[in-house]
Amino acid sequence: NATYPAFYQGHHKSAHRVGSFDAATEVVWENATAVFRVELATAVRYKHILWKSKRHRLVVAADVQVNEHGSLVKLKGNKGIKMSSGAAKIEDCFNVVGILGILAFVHVL
């Protein structure tokens, strides 16, 4: 596990954190690649003019493929690591509710 200290990002600013961990260099394999599951868990708090919001928890993950030297394997057309959340999308909930509403309306007729 790697932990970074808390920081204030600022309004309309971007922040980048670079780091490494020793697990990729301790494992020895020859002429092969390995896949690591990388997860990012954080909490975000928004600052309004007069108050601060509650903490919003965010967890995203990605599978990272490394070569025998412990370096990131770059695939063709790869623009980096894209992390995604496993949470349900809000649009999907609205689609289901809309379809159920239409079916209930048709059933009443």
Short characterization:
The protein contains 2 helices and 2 strands.
Mind explaining what this structure looks like?
With 109 residues, the chain is α+β, with helices and mostly antiparallel strands. The chain has one domain (23-108). 21% of the residues lie in helices and 20% in strands. The chain is built from two helices and two strands, in the order αββα. Strands 1-2 form a two-stranded antiparallel ribbon. The longest helix is centred in the C-terminal third of the chain and has 19 residues, at 90-108. The chain is flat and about 70 Å long.
Key terms:
about 110 residues; alpha+beta; two-stranded antiparallel ribbon; 2 helices; 2 strands; about 20% helix
Topology:
Elements: H1 23-26, E1 34-44, E2 56-66, H2 90-108
Antiparallel strand pairs: 1-2
The assembly state of the depicted protein chains is single chain
- The total count of helices amounts to 2
Shape: flat
Question: What Rg is obtained from the alpha carbons, in whole angstroms?
Answer: 21 Å
Q: From N to C, what is the helix and strand string?
A: HEEH
Helix content: 10-25%
Within the largest sheet, what's the order of strands? 1-2
Q: What's the number of extended β-strand segments?
A: 2
